[in-house]
Amino acid sequence: MTGDVLQLDPTGEDARRVALVERIVQLRVEHRDLNDVIDRIRERADVDNLQVTRMKRRKLLIKDQIARLERELDPDIPA
């Protein structure tokens, strides 16, 4: 493979982007899992509304974290 040159990232930007993507994936999994747990809890007769409310709040916080990290990963740059 002549002519192919391995480009190294001396700033560490590639590693930072990979870390952001990995964190976003982790948060999406946690968000999905919380949604599944909330759905199962609601099916029970003895629903703990406080617990459901706390889980929903956690889910919203996770959603906000995902949005923040996605903006950091791909910020809007005005033309």
Structure characterization notes:
This protein is mainly alpha-helical and 79 residues long. It is 71% helix and 0% strand. It is built from 2 helices and no strands. The protein has helices at residues 13-43, 49-73. Helix 1 packs antiparallel against helix 2 (49-73). The longest helix is centred in the middle third of the chain and has 31 residues, at 13-43. The two termini are 38 Å apart.
Write down the secondary-structure element order: HH
| Class per helix and strand makeup | mainly alpha
Calculate the mean pLDDT score and round it: 88
Helix content: over 70%
Low-confidence stretches: none
Distance between the termini: 38 Å
- Provide the gyration radius in Å: 19 Å
Q: Shape, please?
A: elongated
Main sheet attributes: strand count, strand direction, barrel closure: none
- Discrete helix count: 2
Q: Notable features of this structure?
A:
mainly alpha; 71% helix; elongated; single chain; 79 residues
Secondary structure layout plus pairing:
Elements: H1 13-43, H2 49-73
Helix pairs in contact: 1-2
